[in-house]
Amino acid sequence: MDSPKPSGLRASTNAKSENGQNRPGIRPARGGKAPGKEIDFGELDDFVGFQMHKMRNIQVVKLAEIIAPESAPGHFPILYLIGRNPGSTQSAIAAAVGLDRSSLVPILNRFEASGWLLRVPAKTDRRAHALSLTAAGKSKLKDLQEIVVSLETRISDELGHPGHRSMIDQLHRLQRAFGEG
Fold it and tell me: Can you state the angle between helices 75-84 and 101-113, rounded to 10 degrees?
């Protein structure tokens, strides 16, 4: 049975006017804006995609503050999947992280130049490359994993265990709805 579709977007009520009344879709801006400056988000504030995008950007910035300049935030899932799936092809890893293969190649080139990755022709298809981490790559993965787990713990602590589990379940559901999960 399909769940009911929303009939429309509701107005956000994130800020109060000077007389204490809710102001739909308007809230103080964050991150480098002038103090007291407000941004009218309107219906955008109720778009799940926008909120996911914004949270991803926040997470990327927080992670970049910790791991830059030698790694980029998007490197962890790639290293992690290669570490968990040695011998997987570039195409399989690209699909698993939601990248096209051509976007993954420069990242793998950087990993290889850093001494973290070994690429060899795949046994089943010499045109494909099988990937595995070197000892240095495994060490880098361990370092990054500690950092990422600490950020994930912060998210889980904020949401609580049931909220965290629900968030993961809902994101998986959306991925499946778009044919990606």
Answer: 80
Which residue reads 């089943």 in tokens? 124
Ordered structural domains, the chain, with CATH: 9-41 (no CATH), 48-181 (1.10.10.10)
Give residue for tokens 């899932």: 77
Which residue spans within the chain are E strands per DSSP? 13-16, 22-24, 26-28, 38-40, 117-121, 129-133
pLDDT in tens, 128-177: 899 999 999 999 999 889 888 988 899 899 999 999 999 999 999 998 89
Predicted TM-score (pTM) of the model is 0.69
Q: Which two tokens stand for residue 82?
A: 């290669």
175, containing H or E segment: helix 135-177
Identify the three-state secondary structure at position 127: coil
Q: CA 133, 123, 74: angle at the middle one, nearest 5?
A: 35
Q: What pLDDT is stored for residue 14 in this prediction?
A: 45
In three-state form (DSSP H/G/I as H, E/B as E, the rest C), the secondary structure along 157-170 is HHHHHHHHHHHHHH
CA distances from 150 to 63, 66, 78 (A): 10, 11, 18
Interval 50-66: pLDDT, tens: 988 888 888 878 877 77
